[in-house]
Amino acid sequence: MMIPGAKITSSPSNRISFRNDFLKIFIFALAYFGAHRFAFLFPDSKNVIMLIWPAAGIGLAAFLLNPKRLWPALILAFYIAGITADVILSDGSLIAAIGTMTASMVESIGCAWFIIYVTKDFQYFTRTQEVLALLIGTLVINAISACIGAGTSVLIRGSIFSQSWLSWYISDSLGILLIAPFIVSWSTNIRDLITDLHSKKIYESTAFILVWSFFSYIIFFYASKNISMDFHPYMLVALLAWPAMRLGMRGITMALLILFFILIYSARIPNVLSPWGGIYTNTPQLLLQYQIFLIFLAFVGYLMSAFYSGFKQAEGSLRKSEEQYRTIIETAMDGFWIVDTNGNILQVNDAYCSMTGYSKNELLNMHISDLETNENQEDVNKHIKRIKFFGEDRFEARHRRKDGSFIDFIANVQYRKEDGGKLIAFYHDVTERKNAELALIDNERLLRETQAIASLGSYILNINSGLWQSSEILDDIFGIDDKYIRSIEGWTQLIHPEWRDLMADYFSSHVIGERAGFDKEYKIVRHSDGEERWVYGLGKLEYDSEDRPIKMIGTISDITWRKRIEEELNNKLEELMKFQKLTVGRELNMIELKKEVNELLKMSGKEEKYKIIS
User: Does the pLDDT value for residue 271 go beyond 60?
Assistant: First the structure.
């Protein structure tokens, strides 16, 4: 949204981008203008055939090398340059120039759009689909634009449609196939081009140009003469394999342009050999033969270059993926094997060597059974057959280290049928986990035995659902099995009827209401046999992020034996108290009696018989 009064500013990067775009458009427009005049420098018959129309290739290259946001500006620049060249330099009419430029823009834009649409990601004619799209666009879209151009020539100049269409179609096709790939290949990847100029490839390129020029000159200038060796135009097709495999698209386009100028020069010489055989004295017919031959060479050369480039890219990708694969394998934390179907180790990575203490050379001379402790050689062979049948397997393995200790693995093995069949195996070290599992099992067993000795069961109560889980010891205390419904109601039913209301109120008011936890002795009735028992329950509440109780974890121990001892002790104390009361009363009566006896003896003048301690 624009703010009234705000100033529109442009950053330095935007200004640089604008200058660069303007400069590119200006250069292409200037080249387009010069190409119009350049085309009339070649021999032609004016009303019959134009040898080449370079502007068609310049226009296509411009649209392919620039983003679509610049296409409108390029169209305007080409219209101005083309109309100016046709009207001023060629003395043509404005209407004819507009019609001709419209046909040219349909041709250039149509071919560019088709190539980009088919290839998605344009890679400068280095892929087969790009070359095929270029050839199809040249043959099909150019045929449509030739109708527009020929129609303009018929309406304005009164030309014959078939001759005008053929002239347009052949010359523009040649312009597209020779000029567009030349501009695209030589104006991209400049850094690689500079590198090539400073390498031995410049000598190879020079050697090819000399050889190509020599054979082209000999074939079209002296092949019709009586010389010691026969030279034929098809030899050039074989010679194009050199730049296709060594120099790329740049070498192909340079070779075609050199041949083009040699053919133009040879056309001025009478009785020159046609590329398709025979001697022609008619210049227009000879030029048409040359055009078709150049189009054929471009078709073959570009396809050879694209095929070889695709092959090299695939080879490079394969080499890169192999290097990545090797790097991943060698730097992996897991052990890696490649084993043949006989169980012999063919390849192993550093991680496995580090795990087992063996060197690679030692392992590559070993059999699986030399390391595997869970299977002997016969078992290993059976296991390999099973993996070959199912295609893969995942299992636990235990291998013997070089020092005699053991290492536990989880093995993932896949069977590959290539090269006589191989097994690809990854070994994940789980020794620590296995030791931890064994320690956990021992601890759980010790805990169960301890709880069994102490008659101590455990539980987890979900406050929201009202359901609880119990240990085996607690199930034995309650006398319940797996089918018993472990809910609050189920727990309440286990409580002795005399304690049921009290415990229900204790749980809801004290434990949940006051958040005090569970700490209570109470009486239960076992579900299985109805036996009454005393238990002591402990529980600790856990809370969620909103401080609401969600879980209680605790223990319940059987204290029946303690309660029985306490009850028996209380009974004995009561009996002792009763006996003590009887004994103490009798002793007091004896003391009184002894006092009376002593008093009577004293009154009778005798000595006291009993000594009384108060």
Answer: no
Alpha-carbon distance of 82 to 149, in angstroms, equals: 14
Helix (H) or strand (E) holding 393: strand 392-400
CATH class of 332-429: alpha beta
Distance of CA 251 to the CA centre of its chain: 38
Six token digits for residue 464: 């929201």
Does the pLDDT value for residue 1 go beyond 70? no
- CATH of 17-188, picked from 3.40.50, 1.10.1760, 1.10.287, 1.10.3470, is 1.10.1760
Instruction: Quote the tokens at residue 263.
Output: 């053919």
Q: Nearest to residue 55, comparing CAs of 69, 67, 72, 37?
A: 37
- Assign a CATH topology to domain 455-558: Beta-Lactamase (3.30.450)
pLDDT tens sequence across 460-509: 999 989 999 998 889 989 999 989 999 999 999 999 999 999 999 999 89
3-state class (DSSP) for residue 458: strand
Question: What is the rounded radius of gyration, in angstroms, for the C-alpha atoms of the chain?
Answer: 52
Dist CA 58 CA 2 (whole Å): 40
Give the predicted TM-score (pTM) of the model: 0.56
Confidence of residue 132 (pLDDT cuts 50, 70, 90): very high
Residue with tokens 């609401």: 548
| φ/ψ of residue 224, rounded to 5 | -85, -10
What one-character DSSP code corresponds to residue 125?
A: T
